[in-house]
Design goal:
By secondary structure, the chain is an alpha+beta fold. Helices cover 41% and strands 17% of the residues. The chain has 16 helices and 14 strands. The strands form 3 sheets. A 6-stranded antiparallel sheet has the order 2-4-3-6-7-5. A 5-stranded mixed sheet has the order 10-11-12-13-14. A 3-stranded mixed sheet has the order 1-8-9. The radius of gyration is 21 Å and the shape is globular.
Amino acid sequence: MSEALSQRALNRAMLARQLLLERSDRPVLDTVAHLVGLQAQEPPNPYLALWSRLARFDPDELSGLLTARQVVRIVVMRGTIHLVTANDALLLRPLVQPVLDAELARHRDHAPALRGVDLAPVLDVARTILAEHPHNGRQLRAALAERFPEHDPAALAYACRCRLALVQVPPRGLWRRTAQVTVTTAEAWLGAPLATDPSTDDVVLRYLAAFGPASTADFAAWSRLTGIGEIVDRLRSRLRTFRDEKGRELFDLPDAPRPDPDTPAPPRFFPEYDNVNLSHADRSRFMADEQRGWLFNSAAPVHGAVSHDGFLAGTWSIDREGDAPVLVVRPVVKLTKRATAAVAAEGRRMLRLVEPEAAGLDVRFVGL
């Protein structure tokens, strides 16, 4: 019978793979590749995610990789914006095409407007004009409206978003810069074609290296791809199997780190969107089910997460009193005085990163 792994053992394994038990000296580019990308819906998110994982992280280094086209912002896993390496953009984007096809087909507003429309000439035109120079949304819609006046330009632009590999070009995504979304094709930006036969097998193995041990449902939740059971069956001879506390089968790389469940886990601050709390169907290795609403309540703003002892301990946001930033921490569990002090110390370090000109580093704990 497969070895059972406790919730705490799964937590420590994930934290080790995510470089969260102790900050790593890995180069930034290698880290982005190891993590198979970083959530990037909000431009600052990858910077805070890397700061929480890397020793002596310099945000300007990541900005430099963006301008040098070594990393890009692109729609990949789950149809969401990620920051990935250039190589992974060319690999992952065609791999997730079925996810984006399904998203386009079920869109409440755009799918009806595209019914019966031959998209081939639309995509050809868009590919050409975007390769000539990047366009923002308004410019792309205007160009498509001029060429295809009989169709809804917003729907055509959304079809381009789903059917073409579009990267968001700098200054969008640079540290402490604001800029509207402007896109071109990955092929034009990177000077290379998309992968023609991307290997899902390899991506499953990379997922386990960054997030395992995990179930087939976990990989599906991370990627939204289907048919994962067949892939894992094909890989079984290369994997080690476990089971969780509920008896579910888990898979892992044989030599991947699985630390002692009692390994200390220091406090960490996560951005609004971070793969540590988005990449498993069963998120109990990081948070209780009833806590998910604190992070992802559609009726309230999305907040960053705070962990203590490896698990979700609260949410955070930055408020302002005049010009002074205040880091507000809202615990979702009872913290001891010692834990509160440790979280506050990490919070002040984080505040120094995001508000380097601030005269003070005020951290306040408030009830939910």
